[in-house]
Amino acid sequence: MAKAWVLLEVLDGKIKRVSWEMVTLAQQTGAQEIVGLLIGQGVQDLTGEASQYGFDKIVLVDHPAVEKYSASSYTAILTELYEKEKPELLFIANTAQGRDFAPRLAQRIGAGQVSDVTAYQGLAAANEGAKEVAATHTEQGPSTEATLAGQGAFIRPIYAGKAFASVRANSFPLVVTVRPNAFTAAAPQEGSEQGKATPVVEVPSLAATEAPVDLSAVIKEVVKHISSRPELTEADIIVSGGRGIKGPENFPLIESLADTLGAAVGASRAAVDAGWRHHDDQVGQTGKTVSPTLYIACGISGAIQHLAGMNSSKVIVAINKDPEANIFKVADYGIVGDLFEVVPLLQAEFEKV
Ligand code: FAD
């Protein structure tokens, strides 16, 4: 496998952690060259941080035309950049932004797409499966050989997380969207790698300078739900509350435990629909997909639509007074009890640590 590109996602002037998680995935694929892409206005200042992650090169498009994200401008810029270097793999975060433009980009450059990847299966295991594919899809010809020669398989949850699909490329390029928190973030290296600075190539993108034809218009800026807690999709620990909390007046119980743990606060749709929490906090099929190290579900029954958003969490703790609750089927640790008793006890214990 030759070249992999990683689009570094920037929010509020900071590179999101998922960007470094995509570096790990790019490394796992055995890409010989890994390039970081920075797009936006004022993002030049971020090249110093990006260069600590061992990129072979950083491509920078710093332009007022991309001060704000738009699917059309990102697609136009990335298409233009792609045409110059033709990387085989393009990694994009499976965030609201990535999900918005990645399929459009894939279509524009004639790429296949694998969405919401949570793991990568190495070459040897994937090749076994690829041989079977080659036997049944001989018309794929040389591109299947490329799969056999250089690439493993991308793993993605399907059927709301009830099963996993193992997806190999039959052809390149391939656009891969990557679920936040599924991969360990690459560690920054002090200074530059092996004593040589990462080259930064500034591209005065034609697509950025010529305002792209926008078929859609933003009529309202992002409405932010300000919180001092970590962003849900990036959080390492999440404490979530459901209908079992009984009302918004009891959510401080969850918030207090979350603050003790430095966690984000999540909610089931029942809690959101009841108006107890902002929609930003909703975890699940129609909310956010999260993969924290620790997910504590309090008073949540574990409906399939909720599990779809959190069952790739590394460790799941469930507190529910109903021993038959579905959430216990996915929980690593289950506490059968009244959350109004259990949560303060847990908090008191965590405060001792
Ligand atoms: P309930 O199912 O009512 O469960 C409450 C739980 O709290 C029960 O298990 C109960 O035993 C427990 N409990 C009560 N009191 C206590 C106590 N004192 N101590 C401990 N435990 C207690 N849901 C989502 O969460 N996210 C989604 O994105 C989502 N998308 C959906 C999309 C579609 C198309 C549909 C049809 C549904 C979707 N839902 C979603 C809704 C989902 O089906 C469930 O209705 C919802 O998840 C239930 O929320 P809950 O677990 O908080 O409430």
Automatic annotation (TrEMBL):
User: What GO molecular functions are on record for this protein?
Assistant: electron transfer activity; flavin adenine dinucleotide binding
SUPFAM superfamilies recorded for this chain? Adenine nucleotide alpha hydrolases-like, DHS-like NAD/FAD-binding domain
Q: What is this protein called?
A: Electron transfer flavoprotein, alpha subunit
Q: Which gene encodes it?
A: etfA
Q: What keywords tag this UniProt record?
A: Electron transport, FAD, Flavoprotein, Transport
Source organism lineage?
Answer: Bacteria, Bacillati, Bacillota, Clostridia, Eubacteriales
Q: Where is the Electron transfer flavoprotein alpha/beta-subunit N-terminal domain?
A: 4-215
What SMART domains has UniProt attached to this entry? Answer: ETF (SM00893)
Signal sequence, renumbered to the chain: none
Q: Which free-text remark accompanies the cofactor?
A: Binds 1 FAD per dimer.
Required co-factor(s) are:
FAD
